Amino acid sequence: MRSFILALSLIISVKSFAQADSFGALELAAQVARLTAQSSATLSPEQLEALTFHLQAAKAILEGGEAPGPIDPPAPVPSVCTEFEPEYQSTFQKMKDFAYAGQGLNMDSNGAKKYSLDWLTKYPCAAADRFISGYKTIRDFAYAGQGLNMDSEGSRKYALSKVDLLCEGVNLFNEYRRHYDFAYSGRGLNMDSAGARKYAQPRLEAVAFVCPISNFSINLVP
């Protein structure tokens, strides 16, 4: 992709030198060629797509044609799961099963139904798997002796309170132990176990639970 863009920018530069007039196209084409060679390797996929679109538009104009139309914006992701979506019923059942399961929220049948209906008013259908996975990751960490060492009920409540803020890619155990070991070590802060836990938890949370709830409705990762 980057080599294609570079070649395209050079083609435009040559055509501009041949066809330029007093409007400054010569200088602009030279700048485009130089900046493309310098910066294309550092551009994001979105920036590369936009650059390619505009370079192709410039090439089309220089060849006597018309510039292509604007880039179609991506389809918006629904902010909540509505009954008009084909995934609504399966998502309702999935969240109800999650709420009812012992490894989930451990609710009774009526409570699980109410929870699922309420969840659907707050999240898009596509967020269900990610929400459940994130909840289980946090709950297991909170319950584990190598984690926060909470009881079953405490770990469930903790996971529910944090799942909306969970940042992808953070290993909860590794991040927590890094701070705990430093606080507990004689070469570190030399705290007792309880003190080291109190030291480590907020520092973990400052890294792992700072991503907003909008993660569930924007750029969802399958």
Architecture overview:
The chain is mainly alpha-helical and 222 residues long. The chain folds into two domains: 2-62, no CATH class; 88-216, no CATH class. Helix content is 59%, strand content 0%. It has nine helices and no strands. It has helices spanning 2-19, 25-39, 45-62, 88-100, 109-120, 128-143, 152-162, 172-184, 193-208. Helix 1 packs antiparallel against helix 2. The chain is flat and about 70 Å long.
Structure, briefly:
The chain has 222 residues and is mostly helical. The chain has helices spanning 2-19, 25-39, 45-62, 88-100, 109-120, 128-143, 152-162, 172-184, 193-208.
Radius of gyration: 27 Å
Unreliable segments (pLDDT under 50, ≥5 consecutive)? 217-222
Structural class: mainly alpha
Identify the quaternary structure here: single chain
How helical, in percent, are the residues? 55-70%
Taking the sheet with the most strands, its summary is: none
List key phrases describing it.
222 residues; mainly alpha; 2 domains; 9 helices; disordered C terminus
Give the helix/strand layout:
Elements: H1 2-19, H2 25-39, H3 45-62, H4 88-100, H5 109-120, H6 128-143, H7 152-162, H8 172-184, H9 193-208
